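user:
I keep going back and forth on a fold encoding question. Separate attempts, laid side by side, tell us more than any discussion would. Would you put together a sequence-and-structure record for a protein of your own picking? Write it directly below this note and I will take it from there.

assistant:
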Amino acid sequence: MSAVLVEKILKAPSVADPLQVVTQVLTEFDWESMGSRGSQRQRHAVIAANPGLLERDLAKQHLMAVGFVDALRQRGVDADVAQLAAGVGTHVFRTAYERWLGADDDTTLATICASVMSDLSKIVPTGAAASSSPPES
């Protein structure tokens, strides 16, 4: 699965917005091919309840993000930007995926991912400049 997702990044029409590319590639994957939402819920619960399985799952997610960084770099994205896009993008997707698993309706994963991206924009507004001084209390 990781190789398929990395290949999609390599073939993306544009990587001008690398965060969007990462979340879109993850969201567009056919997660239903991994089993019904119900079976994915059960799998997720088993992994969450077992520290060894959770550690293994997180390691796999990390390796996938490393593959995304490499693919973005191959496409000409700056190393620091690629690393940030891959890390944030996989976390945004993980958050959306967990919400999708917990949803009791037929809201699509893409819709939930867009909502998570909207939440992210509320805490990191577009065009926000990094400040060298700490926030005021």
